[in-house]
Amino acid sequence: MRPARAATLVAFLTAALIPVPAHAQPASASAPASASEGRQTWSVSPAKADGPDGRPGFEYVVEPGMRYDDHLAVRNLGDAELTVDLYAGDAVNTDTGGFDLLARDEPSSSVGRWITLPTTEVTVPPRQVVVVPFSLTVPADAEPGDRVGGVVAALTTGSDVQVERRVGARVYARVAGAVTPAVGVESLSATYRASLNPAGPGELDVTYTVVNQGNVRLTLRPSVAAQGLFGLGEVTAADDPLPELLPGNAITLTRTVTGVWPLGPLDVRVTADPVASAGQTLAGAVDPGVAETTTWAWSWTTIATLLLLAAILLALWHVRRKIRALRVAAAAKP
After folding, report:
1. What does the DSSP assignment read for 287-333?
2. Exposed, middle or buried, 250 (CB in 10 Å: 0-12/13-18/19+)?
3. List of long-range contacts for 278-284, beta carbons under 8 Å, 24+ apart
4. Buried/exposed code over 41-55 (b: 16+ C-beta within 10 A; e: otherwise)
5. pTM of the complete model
């Protein structure tokens, strides 16, 4: 292993502390947690050897084959002694695009695997801070791009069902080399829902999956456009930027577009526009992800109303024709 060297830090632009969701685990042979443990609170933050250093989180530009040393501060915010487990894990996007870490029993392949902690457990006196050193060793064959994970301090409570409460600090490591931001839109489907009002527009439910196909994390702004033949009745709906999408991750979204008229065949287009990466504005520098499909927009209430009107007009025409025939017959009599 090469000698350790100081990490190269870049601006950290997102919250570092991770209120990671609790995970229920099968009960083990360990002693049950006391009731007081459920009220214990703690935090973690980046630090130097002598204590927290004010950094909001860990972010590095790293090179393959190198080791980077750093420190994590675990602060006990309670009035009782606190013992927590320490481990690292890779980050993933949740189904809604949020930030989460793999559970401790799920294997990591990047940051969670690269980080080495000197201990798996630390005890912190009440209202005190303990600083734990750790190292991040980048494999010699690591490919360029973003690797994201976190270091977690976790407390497990419960007997029949164990619940893990965990707090972590995010770790962003960008492996030096060519970055290739790319985004795709997949599995696009659209369904039209007509209004009960035969003279009113309906709604279009559009479901699609946005995939980060590149090697850097991206902030994306999706939009949906729908139009009839020759561009008639065009409607566009733009959303706020999504939570940051990590490389290789995907999020499935459903957007309801209102004010869509039943014009028969509708061309539907979804665009996912990359607007930023790691806090840096992309400003059109990366091609958006695009997907298109066609659906049919019919209003059965409108069709039924038109058929009813046609039937009334036809009946009136027959009545008028009959009246005219009777008048002609009456006029022909001597």
Report:
1. PPEEEEEEEEE--HHHHHHHHHHHHHHHHHHHHHHHHHHHHHHHHH-
2. middle
3. 278/10, 278/13, 278/146, 278/172, 278/174, 278/216, 278/217, 279/11, 279/13, 279/14, 282/181
4. ebebbbbeeeebeeb
5. 0.78
Q: DSSP 3-state assignment of 231?
A: helix
232-278 pLDDT, tens per residue? Answer: 999 999 999 998 999 999 999 999 999 999 988 999 999 999 999 98
User: To which H or E segment does residue 99 belong?
Assistant: strand 99-101
Question: Which ranges of 72-220 does DSSP label H, i.e. alpha helix?
Answer: 111-114
> Distance (Å, rounded) from C-alpha 222 to C-alpha 101?
25
Q: What is the token pair recorded at 243?
A: 């939570």
How buried is 265 (Cβ within 10 angstroms: 0-12 exposed, 13-18 middle, 19+ buried)? exposed
Is residue 183 within 8 Å of residue 215, measured between CB atoms? no
Residues 6+ apart with CB under 8 A from 293: 188, 189, 190, 268
